[in-house]
Amino acid sequence: MNQPPAGYAPAPVTARMENHGSHMLKVAMQTGNDLFARAGSMVAYEGFIQYEPNPAAVRQIARDWITGEGAPLMRCSGDGLLYLADYGADVVVINLAGDAISVNATNLLAFDAHLTWGVERVKGLAKFAGQGLWNTTISGQGWVALTSRGEPIVVDCGDGEDETHVDPDALVAWSPNLKVRGKRSFKAQSLIGRGSGEAFQLAFSGRGIVVVQPSEDSTDRLRFRG
């Protein structure tokens, strides 16, 4: 078979990062423009690309990630085309233009190595939860790729007084300038059976966006720890 199946051949490169279908990321690699990617996410590549797992830059930042929720990363360098995926999850490509985004570690697929990034505790939750929520904040001018369990929605919080409430297990990313607080709701009927009667949400307010996936994936995601 010398010809690829119709509709599945690689398309011409038009950007540093772009979707190849909805479940795969294509990265145009160039020497001197390295990439941080989730370890094990490489599914194919063309050209000459090298991989360094757990590079020194990641180890330095990981010292501050006391909750142990950091995503294992590898540094990718070289020339060619790199294809990344994460168990068939949808891929969302974002081009930062001097702004920033906060991302859950489990939803972080790849980002340009020259971007500024770090692990931070989300303000406004420690007093409420007694513990805290950790996230990865990425800023600068460059490309970021996220994953979502299903096609996500992007909610514009606007700048009014109304809050946007999100299930923590469905949260993918958000604008770091948004105010975040925890909220609990109680339903007496939930006490019957296994339910605890208590549900926890995150409330966002201010000017910015929130990315929400159509899946309450609670496997080692927004875990509250001391």
**Helical element count?**
2
* Head-to-tail CA distance between termini: 57 Å
Percentage of β-strand residues:
over 45%
Largest sheet: 12 strands, antiparallel
- The Rg value, from CA coordinates, equals 19 Å
Structural class: mainly beta
Mean pLDDT level: 81
Q: Helix fraction?
A: under 10%
Spell the H/E element sequence: EEEEHEEEEHEEEEEEE
Number of strands: 15
Shape: globular
What kind of oligomer do you see?
Answer: single chain
Low-confidence stretches: 127-132, 190-198, 220-226
Description:
The structure is a single chain. The termini are far apart. The chain is 5% helix and 47% strand. The protein is mainly beta and 226 residues long. Strands 1, 2, 3, 4, 5, 6, 7, 8, 9, 10, 12 and 15 form a 12-stranded antiparallel β-sheet that branches. The protein contains 2 helices and 15 strands. Strand 1 and strand 2 form a beta hairpin.
Short description:
This is AIM24 family protein. With 226 residues, the protein is mainly β. It has helices at 56-62, 126-129; strands at residues 17-19, 25-29, 35-38, 42-53, 73-84, 90-103, 108-112, 116-121, 134-148, 153-156, 164-166, 171-174, 179-186, 198-205, 209-212.
